[in-house]
Every structure is written in C-alpha cells, then in structure tokens.
Amino acid sequence: MNFVQPIRDPEVIREIKRYLKEQNERNYMLFVTGINSGLRISDILPLRVSDAKRSYFKITEVKTKKDKFLDMTPQLQREFKEYIIGKEDHEHLFKSREGINKPIGRGMAYKILRNAANHFGLIDIGTHTLRKTFGYHMYKQTGDVALLQKILNHSDPAFTLRYIGIDQDAMNKAMKDFKI
Questions:
Q1: Where are the alpha helices (DSSP H) in 9-127?
Q2: Which residues participate in catalysis according to the annotation?
Q3: Which domains, from first to last, does the chain contain?
Q4: CA spacing 20 to 30 A to 5: which of 11, 77, 111, 115?
Q5: What pTM was estimated for this model as a whole?
C-alpha cells in the first residue's frame, strides 16, 4: 500500500472540484463527500440516497465495525440536496454503470482520483487522500487534534498529526528555513 498525502492547497481543491464537475456529477460528488466527511472510501461507496437526505451520517464503519454518527457539513448537505433530485431512496449515491444499482468499486474510485491527480500533476494521491484532506483542513481550521482524533477514530493524537501530514509540513518548513 502506497503512502498518500492530503491535498493541502485550497486552490488545487477548487480546481479539482471544477474539473470533476465538468466531467461527471457522480465523480464530483464522490470527491466532495470524501473531503467533507472524513469517511473512509469503504464507508462512502455503499451510501444510498436515503443517507443523503439526513443531516448526519449514521454508519457502521467497515474497517472498525463501530457505529458512527457524524453531522454533515452544511456544504455537503447543499450538494447532496441538489445531487439526489429525481433519485429513489434505495439507489446508491455512487452508482456503477455495471449491474443494476451497484456502487462503483474501490478500483473505480481510485481511477477517478488518479485521473484528476494526473491532470493536476499531483503525486501520492489515492482514495485515502480524501480522508486525509478532510483531516488536514479540519485541523488547520480548528487546531484541535483531540477533536480530529475522535472524528477519525484514532487512538493517539501523535498518530493523527502524522496521518494528516502535519509532521511532514513541519519538516518541510524546517528544511526550507534552515541556514548554516
């Protein structure tokens, strides 16, 4: 498994959103859901239209098997409201073109993100980038590692900071500022 990075630059995030929206609404919403929820891709792909009608996520995490309740951001609620118009409650939000009402798989989600990353010259990008991008920007906005640790369901604040790339930022800054 490759180590992936968050997308740190808000302008790059805006450009990726614009790029994906022009291509395909489903792909755009996959990206927006990931960067606005902090959910793992394995918890995003099975979401259904009925899930998008609530103001919160109520899921059992695939990885941890723990129940999770998490409010949606206002932006994500607005995006979902528009996205689900004309869709039935039982439909998957991120439907595959193959089969009847099946969600896209991890491989397709990865392809969507890699395609966008390649378009913008980004490296170290994968499906987990969405979760890390959420974490990075949540931490930058709140400065609250304990809160983020709880949202991401991590057991150690030091791990959370490493996970979202804050340690890497500090190292990069130290190297840039170093003089001898």
A1: 10-23, 25-37, 41-44, 49-52, 74-83, 106-119
A2: 40, 63, 128, 131, 154, 163
A3: 10-177 (1.10.443.10)
A4: 77
A5: 0.92
